[in-house]
Every structure is written in structure tokens, then in C-alpha cells.
């Protein structure tokens, strides 16, 4: 009797255990949140570095005007010093300024006791919040500027001085009051010491539109670099939504990756990457899409900025209902780099459609060890003489010194040249044989 009781108890326990296991199997749900987070972490790719938006937006030159004589700088150290000052400011009470006639606009912008901060392209005021402060809760929308003007004549001095935010091409002027700005200190640090800087001359390219550039030949050097190649597989994992289904094909001049909707090619001769998503079709772009900020965020998503000695800065952007475009240019030291044969070798270029990336072209190398030699190039006076040969100057937006990039076997060479920007495109300024110095040919 005792044995039968024990057997019944054991059977009861086994039945209950079986029921519990069956119930657990029926009701078990895996922790998909954990799996999703785990998969997301695995798919994240960090190719190189991230950059803050404020690190990629910087002036291209500072100009100082003294009774018809103009001085300026394009040196990185001087630009960085001003950016430190700009980050301390807090702008408020932004409003349209008094209208200026075409005759008065030159003296307003380039007259004596003026400091002019020139940006390489127009910047939406909303994006300026990454490089300076705003006291007002709301930044005025639909305003873009490409210059800041500071007047040291004393008329705008005070505890909350006025500066001017200028869209130079359209001759639109806004004024803003500024907290945390001492114009006396700013004058001592920048304006009063500016006469030791290089003299700048100007060319009138259109009615009341002036382009300033150094008068003398700058001290420049030709650089020779070896380079480290970036791994295309990292970009494959970063740019394709499902890298496991991407095919890889070896071609004559490189390698091609593709899936059902996207294609990425890597060229060995140019050492650049070209990603395109032709399947990205849909309604038109929204005009409030900020391609400058979104373009930087996109590269940050795969830590795609390379580090020293090269760095990237915002160069240009355009916007339309069909396509948004943005270019971040490679710099070494004080000067930008240009590769005229194709894009994506000395710059990072993006096109966006339907508010999504459509085309992404960029270099897949970073510079390593280097050496340099002193190089002579023509002066700004030579540039001015060469401009006399131009039929039409109206579309010229800027003139400056830069580097032309070329490659000889495994060595990258950056050679100083003069360049000019026309209709948002940079071109090499070629000098005629009659010039005393033929640099830049």
C-alpha cells in the first residue's frame, strides 16, 4: 500500500512537470528587443571618424578694410581664432537692415573700419546655431547668408553691439544684436593687428560685386604623400541595408558591389567610391530639407571622415524640388584640394532625392607620410592681368590659391595653383606663356 502511494505521487509529479513544460513552450516569446539591439550593434560600421557640424563649417577668408587698402587672411590659424570668438556670441533681435543703394553697397561692405567674414557658400541661419549662439527662442526661417560684417566705426558699439548678416550676391542685409561681444576687444585682437597681414586686391566681376584675393605670391609648397587605402568592405556593410545579399564582382579597374536596388563601385585608378541608389524614386524633395546638416549626419553614421593631415570643410550646396546636392572639400593646411577630372577624389559629394541619399561619391584613401618643397606661383597681380582675357566675369564668385591633386604610382602630389569659382564650379586658372611666372599652367 505504501509502495502504491509513492508510485502515484511520482506519476502525479511527472504529469504536472509535463504540463508546465508544454505551457512554457506554447507561451514562450523570445526577447526580440534584445535581438534587434544586438543585430543593430553588429551592423554598425565605424570606418574612421565622426565630425560635429560646427567643425565642418568655417569661413574661407577674413578681410579688413582701411581707407581703400585691404588686408586679409586665409590661414587656418586665423580662421580658427575667429571661430573661437564667434562661438561665444549670442545673437538676438535679428531683423532686416536699412536698404542700401547699389552705389552705397560697396562702401557699406568694404569701406574703412570694416571687418568682413567670408564663407565659401551661403549658410542657412538655422545651421548657424552650430557655430554661434542665439538668445531668441526661434531663429528666423528662410534666411541664408554668406558674410558677417563688423563695423568698428563706433556707431554700433555698446553693451549689445550690432553686427550685420549679409547675403552678398543678393545684397540683402540683416542686423543682429550680440551678447558676449566686446567690439573694443575684437578690434584689438583682429582689426588693429590686420595691417601686418597680406594685402588683398579685388576684381569687380559684376556691378557692385567684388572678389578679393592676395596681391603677392603666397608662400606655398608642393607636397608628396603616401596614402592608406580604406577597406571597401566597410563601406559595403555601411551603405547596403542587407550586406549578406550583396554580390561582389571584380572588374578591370576595380570592384563593383550590388543588390536589388543599389550599386557601389570602387575605382582603383582614382581611388574613389561611387554609390548610387537608383531605386530611390518618389515624390519631390521637401524644400525645408537641410542638406548641409543631413549630409554631415549621413557620413557620421558610418564614421566616414578621415583625420589628419587632411580634413573636410563645407564647400557648396544647391537645393531644388528634384535634387539636393552638397560638397565637402578636402583641405591640407590652409588650402583646399581639387581634382578636376572627376568628383569624389578630393571631395565628398552627395545627391539626395525624396529626402534620401541617391548618390554618394568620395575618396577611399587617407594621406600618411609626406615631404614638401617650396614652390613659386604667380601673384595676385598676375591673376588680375589674366582675368583681362576673360570675356565675361559676371559668374565668377571667388578666386583663391588651392592645390591640384595628381597621382604618380603610389605617390599623391598636391601642387599649388590658382583657382576660380564660376557658377558654383571650381576651375583651374591657366596662365598664358607671356606671364613672367608660369605656375598654374
Automatic annotation (TrEMBL):
State the Gene3D superfamilies in the record: 3.10.450.310, YycH protein, domain 2
UniProt cross-references to InterPro entries, sorted A to Z: YycH (IPR009996), YycH/YycI_2 (IPR042274)
Any one Pfam family match given in the protein's UniProt record, by short name: YycH
Where does the record place the Regulatory protein YycH domain?
4-438
Q: What residue ranges are annotated as transmembrane?
A: none
Q: What's the name of the protein? A: Regulatory protein YycH domain-containing protein
